[in-house]
TrEMBL record:
UniProt-recorded name of the protein: N(4)-(Beta-N-acetylglucosaminyl)-L-asparaginase
Biological processes, Gene Ontology terms: proteolysis
Native source organism of the sequence: Liquorilactobacillus aquaticus DSM 21051
Positions of substrate binding: R177, I178, G179, D180, T200, G201, L202, G203
Alphabetic keyword roster: Autocatalytic cleavage, Hydrolase, Protease
Source taxon at top rank: Bacteria
Keyword Protease: yes
Catalytic residue list: T149 (nucleophile)
Amino acid sequence: MWGMIATWSMSLDGITAASQALDHNSTAADTVVSAVKQVEDFPFYKSVGYGGLPNEESEVELDAAYMEGDTLAIGAVGGIKDFANPVMIAQRLAQEKVNNFLVGAGAEKFASIHGFQRKNMLTQRAKKLYEQRAKQLSEKLSPYSGHDTVGMVCLDKMGSMSSATSTSGLFMKKAGRIGDSPIPGSGFYVDSQVGGATATGLGEDIMKGCLSYEIVRLMKEGKSPQKACDQAVFQLDEQLRERHAEAGDLSVVAMDKNGQWGCATNINDFSFVVATAESPEATVYVANAHADQTKIEAASEQWLENYFAKRGASGK
């Protein structure tokens, strides 16, 4: 028994490779980091890693996190610049007894000392988009459509689970801004005795509900991953609308210790990828909000064709 679930269709290549690795007894720890790294390295994904869109000062600041479900060990980095794979740095931090979450210059110093690859993460394409956006600074800044986090939850044949996230955050964000992605309990959480969850969307709102931990808590109470996701997302959505008159994008995926999975979203056309021992071919699903439930369907051939055409034209 093994399984893996990840946010957004940009995870497809990573999950495809991961499914083969897991079937050949790879560990959840190795597999989840390798799959996230694959997304970080692809230059046309404008919200993660190399090619990620910059902050308002034209600097690419990256956030990433890693968690082991057996030990509950956590490692995270925030606002790190000029390092190729922040998820690997986060995994290394999870080995430390203390100082598990480092930001900015401190994270960069740790990465340098431990030999992680330095790299200018600002591509010409991202720079061009920044320059176009800079001309519009007189407008009210709102979350850009390219703020999507890659988040993954992985279960291996030994019953161990891990989770990892990586993002460049909101396009044109304030320097130093950290969203939910590297925050334990908000952007991710995993417990091998229960299951794991990871979130994507507007981090400022996801953090208000500790969304990933809430889903794992609900699964621990006996709810299925799907019911736990729906309950957590739509209750937070309702709460935010009652208190703030609006709610940002909230999307989550989850998997329990038995490989059962779930997804919930308050938006339309949220994509995610799943592979399990029972269905080993990585499959893209599309989720849409429907009242207080999430409607999920496998992506159509036309949907996939459009995705690959857009990606080939340097889109996400």
